[in-house]
Write a structure and sequence with these properties.
This protein is α/β, with parallel strands linked by helices. 38% of the residues lie in helices and 13% in strands. The protein has 2 domains: 124 residues, Alpha-Beta Complex (Aspartate Aminotransferase, domain 1); 222 residues, Aspartate Aminotransferase, domain 2. The structure holds pyridoxal-5'-phosphate. The site of pyridoxal-5'-phosphate has 13 residues, from helix 4. Pyridoxal-5'-phosphate binds next to helix 4.
Length: 365
């Protein structure tokens, strides 16, 4: 606390990202990074861009990158917004499109950055519970829309941290049933097993799809994310960006991300490896007695019937393996969110868990 802080700062509860340890030799399965390096074409493009031109500001409109993204999704460049990581894109979308008199709706168990942005921008929100299987219940959202005004709707697909995907027909039903609310679908993990809503954009003017290169393109360190939507919605987000930072993406990030989107071979190969490893990891965890939610992402969400999530995470950390455990909401406190690593990393995790759950007596609370 400081008397020099503004009232806004006093009221903030900042988002806490997963640990980025300074120690080496850790098995890092806590922040859903890709265990494999990015496409070599990305590194080549960044090297080529790292020249004398760095004295010049980058293109404030990121036109070349927007054209690449638009072509990839069969959309127009005017339907694309790019930002410094999808977290920044989300922030601008909250500010530009989700701040209204009526409350913003999102699931009770979801990406924990949403309530942080809502608070930062003074947006009132209402959380709708996932069902007993941790699924988003579209009918609950439709019921609220039918009752009165809704300021907007946001959810990840697949959801985080559950990994559970919502079918495209359900997303479409939501868009049709809530035509007056902007619906933001955060597709950070869509490539690992869900269907993208990008194909619905030309039919639904209230839809924004958010993507990141951090997960399936192995570029968390480059900080590139984007939004897709009608030109009207994209213009709204752009107006906020141009009132904030004209150059959110630097020259290296633009060069690297264009190459990343163009390298379909690397992408298909890496995705396949991770999905295969996810199936093996799921089977291995189930063999140890864990309940594992059906994941369409590059992580699994799993709980042991008799072990506490925080205890398991702490015991793994002693063995230099990092996973994530969320204390809140209470319903997910027993769970571990485990990023799918290389097969060797997953094997080390399973070995360590076997030692913990089989080797020592359970502490039942
Ligand atoms: C990882 C993640 C993001 C943020 O991605 P960046 O582009 O790295 O900022 C956004 N939404 C969800 C649901 C995520 O898991």
């Amino acid at each position: 606390m400081s008397k020099y802080w503004s009232d806004v700062v006093h009221g903030l509860t900042p988002y806490v990202p997963g640990e980025q340890p300074k120690l080496t030799g850790l098995i890092k399965l806590n922040t859903n990074e890709c265990p494999y390096g990015p496409s070599l074409r990305v590194l080549q493009a960044i090297r080529e861009a790292a020249g004398e031109d760095l004295r010049l500001y980058p293109d404030p409109d990121a036109r070349a990158l927007k054209e690449t993204i638009a072509a990839h999704h069969h959309l127009q460049p005017e339907q694309v917004f790019v930002g410094n990581g999808s977290d920044e894109v989300l922030a601008h979308a909250f500010h530009a499109l989700l701040k209204h008199e009526a409350p913003l709706l999102f699931p009770d168990i979801t990406y924990s950055f949403y309530p942080v942005y809502a608070r930062l921008y003074g947006i009132s929100s209402r959380q709708l519970p996932l069902d007993a299987q941790f699924r988003v219940v579209v009918d609950d959202y439709l019921a609220v829309c039918a009752e009165g005004r809704v300021g907007g709707i946001i959810f990840p697909n697949p959801n985080a941290p559950t990994g559970i995907a919502l079918e495209l027909e359900e997303v479409a039903r939501l868009l049709t049933g809530c035509p007056d609310a902007v619906v933001v679908v955060d597709e950070a993990y869509v490539d690992f097993g869900a269907e993208t809503a990008a194909t619905l954009i030309n039919r639904h003017p209230n839809l924004i799809v958010i993507r990141t290169l951090s997960k399936a393109r192995a570029l968390a360190g480059l900080r590139v994310g984007y939004a897709l939507g009608s030109a009207e919605l994209i213009e709204g987000i752009t107006r906020v960006k141009d009132s904030f930072n004209s150059y959110p993406l630097d020259r290296l990030a633009m060069a690297g991300s264009i190459a990343a989107i163009q390298d379909e071979t690397w992408f298909a190969h890496t995705r396949e490896r991770i999905v295969t490893s996810r199936h093996q990891l799921t089977a291995g965890l189930r063999a140890l007695g864990f309940q594992v939610l059906p994941s369409a992402a590059n992580f699994v969400f799993a709980r042991h019937p008799t072990r506490d999530g925080a205890e398991l995470a702490a015991r793994l950390r002693e063995q230099r393996i990092l996973v994530r455990n969320f204390r809140q909401p209470e319903r997910i406190a027993p769970f571990l969110r485990i990023t799918v690593g290389t097969d060797a990393q997953c094997e080390a995790l399973l070995q360590a868990l076997a030692g913990i759950v089989q080797g020592t007596p359970a502490v039942l609370s």
